[in-house]
Amino acid sequence: MSRTSLLFRILPAAFGALTLAAISAAQDEGCGDCHDVTLAAESVHADLGCLGCHMELDEELHPEEMTADEELCGLCHDAADALAASVHAAASCQDCHGPVHEVPAAADPASPVSPLRQIASCGGCHDEHDLIDGYLTSVHGHALFKSGLVGAPSCARCHGAHDVLPPGDPRSTVSYQHAPETCGECHRFILDDWRELSAHGLRWQRGESGAPTCVTCHGSHEGRESGRAIRRPTERAVRLGFPESCGDCHSGPYGTYRDSFHGKFTDLGFVPSAICSDCHTPHKNLPADDPRSSVHPDALAATCGQCHGEVSAGFLSFDPHSDPRDPERSRAVYSVWLFMTTLLIAVFAFFGLHDLLWLQRLLVGWRRGEWTHLRKKIGRGQDEPWVRRFPRIHVWTHAVIIVTFLVLAATGLPLKFHYAAWAQALTAMPGTVALLRLLHRAAAALTFGYAFLHLGFIVYRGLVRGDAGLFWGWRSLVPNARDLRDLWHNLRYFLYREPTLKLDRWSYWEKFDYFAVFWGVPIIGGSGLVLWFPDFFTRVLPGWALNAAYVIHSDEALLATGFIFVFHFFHTHLRPEIFPFDPVIFTGSMPLSRFREERRLEYERLQASGELAGRLVKAPGEKRLQVLFGRAIVAVTVGVLLAVAIFWSLFHY
Prior knowledge:
Layout: H1 3-25, H2 38-41, H3 73-76, H4 80-84, H5 93-97, H6 115-123, H7 131-136, H8 139-145, H9 155-159, H10 179-184, H11 188-197, H12 199-205, H13 214-218, H14 236-247, H15 251-258, H16 261-267, H17 276-280, H18 300-308, H19 313-316, H20 331-368, E1 386-388, H21 392-416, H22 421-426, H23 432-464, H24 481-494, H25 508-532, H26 534-537, H27 544-574, H28 584-587, E2 589-591, H29 592-598, H30 600-609, H31 612-615, E3 616-617, H32 622-650
């Protein structure tokens, strides 16, 4: 601005001020004879006197229409041009500053434009979209009204006083072009970091459209319901919501993060879980190939060490954004995923078809009256002896398996299906996720306990006592050629080509159940241990082993729970001829008549050898059966509900 232009701006204002001062000195003190001038005495304009503003009075109209010309404000206040170009051009000075005779100083807490009262004054017109409510619930509003920090940003601090322009106007203080600088007036150090050490800030400085600025991530004050009010980043809801905000621009990395261990825990409300800004930092997020980046290979030890302490080189090679379906990212992890997916589909497809055929055959048999006489209701079978099939140790082992498996499923499935409404509802209360983790690990420890106990039983009976029947023969659970023949025979029975199968001690589906546990415990348990103690295992394993363990643990859990809650429950409890439950595994015995019908080959063998009489036991009491029935119904109900949750989640992903 030239000196001449500056003089032309200053001189009129100075002249106006001197004129008003002179008029004030000559003010007619007689105004008070008709008008209450006490209001003006408390005004910031008290020294001007009446004639300071009312310089021209029309004697014919006076006193009824004696008014002040608002253009006179411009004689002292150089705001007219800015106001005329702003969104408030149609507003008068009095609309914001109050009645002309009562205008207090802007710094006066009683002023309508003071920081404390400014919010209410602006809210008189700007009540749309919950803007004021959004401000009051923001960190700025809390600082002003709860902490009493009068320097906290209010409306004029961000939007300006008289030169308020729409946010879409590039000249606006809150426009995309100027918002970072406006925020930086208070957050100076953060602005410097963001502008020089952030990919976002560097893009913004280059003028790239769409580069995130402060309001992109932190919001402004668009209302509490919209979730865009500026909140403290450490607040639970804000912290948990940041990954989704990052995902607005980074959809690919957000997808892999959400499927990761960190992302799933965050999705369920576990605040300590790592979010984007924990690894990439909030305002210094540079690309990984930049040596200054927090995720540069040279900086990973410090970044990961914030949560994991001292970590090994193997741990640092872990891929936090692993996509197991992408062979280019990791061929090893992809191979594991392909194997587990193939196994899962094959098992579900085979037993799905197998059990559907079985169910339709049983329903037809029911209509024909083929097996009605076999069904034993609770309290029946008391008038005959029962046959002991399992020793007490196996009964108790199975009871532990039931409890631990249900706990593992109920505490692990919410993490796998973290996106499902039922999982979100289950973990909505703070602290729930931590409790589920504790229960899951406790149940895992018990699982290892019964697995080692059973393995010890096998070693003792088979190797120490030389019981070869545990490894081969009709008493063995090891699959053999007869199981294939039984499967073929049963399929023909399902298709009405052969009579019902005559079973020996173990059926082929029972052997599958047994080896599913024998396979599942080391596989799902071993992968779980790797995930439980990643720092320890990556001292000898590469980082991709963590990614592979995660795939194995997740898919094997789905395979195990899906198989148990659908196929195993059908085989042992939900088949029409044994519904509502089979008491044999809970009592270790079954009625002689049912044993003779269902286990014809074992019955004939025991009868021929004379061992049958030694297996006969007294029938359990009706009260005991009722108690066992109640426990079984609880277990089956929990399992069925979890099965429904599994399939609902799979089809609503």
